[in-house]
Amino acid sequence: MKFGYVSCLPETPLITRFVEELNNGRLMGTKCEKCGAKYLPPRAHCKCGSADIKWYEAPRRGKILTYTPVVVPPESMSKYAPYMVAVVKLEDKTRLLAQLTGVTLNMLRVGMLVQVITRRVGADRIAYEFKLV
Ligand SMILES: [Zn+2]
Known about the structure:
Elements: E1 2-3, H1 13-23, E2 28-32, E3 38-39, E4 53-57, E5 61-70, E6 83-90, E7 95-100, E8 113-121, E9 125-132
Parallel strand pairs: 1-9
Antiparallel strand pairs: 2-3, 2-4, 5-6, 5-8, 6-7, 8-9
């Protein structure tokens, strides 16, 4: 299993585990044991320089901080355009950027509650996206 609509994350052991967890219904990020910074998608090294990281399960709900339609996407996503993307503040205060599906621009407002869902993309890919609650 690979992540995303196209290969946007490197196929490291960290990302392999992230994708396996996602495929089993868990949205997992990493947290720095030294400074507490959280990364979703996960990272093996923190911005503080530490590689002492631990996995954590991220909350699946949050509120829209900002959103925008993408009308001129990268070529690999052109068949999905126009589509919406949003930055969501999850319940643990971390922020996540993803596609927001099943909506149109005029139905959206900042602060709306969304949940993170996973979507199989073709036979061997999985992605996460937001859906209004
Ligand atoms: Zn750190």
